[in-house]
Amino acid sequence: MSSVFGAVLASFITVPFLVFFVVNMSIYKVTRKKRKAFKISTDVTTLFLFLSIERMTVEIWGQSYYWVLIILFISGCVLFTLLIWKNDLDMPLGKIFRLNWRLQFLLLTFGYFSLMAYGIIDRILKA
């Protein structure tokens, strides 16, 4: 049973958009709300994108650049906080965190596909 769970988890980390589609369909079937299903799917997929990009950097360059992802996340939180403070908006910290989390989804999606393309081209050129 643990090997099946491990294989499913490894598949989700390798292909994080599989998580997006599974969660999206599951939440939509339960709630019948497309917007809510999409938001929850992006939130869950962001975590798997963090893990996937970390594994891809280890495969491509042989070392982890997880600290770059953490700095990217923290700087996004600081940026959102400063923008909201400068515009005199009253927004709870949880909403700032959620906005940053969704921004990270967009940035990590771009990073995922960029690293995938780089990795494929690098392997082809080394062969």
TrEMBL record:
* Transmembrane segment boundaries: 6-25, 65-85, 105-121
- Tell me if Transmembrane helix is a UniProt keyword of this record: yes
Keywords associated with the record: Membrane, Transmembrane, Transmembrane helix
Question: Out of the domains of life, which is the source?
Answer: Bacteria
Q: Which Pfam families match?
A: DUF3397
- Which protein is depicted? DUF3397 domain-containing protein
Question: Which organism encodes this protein?
Answer: Fictibacillus arsenicus
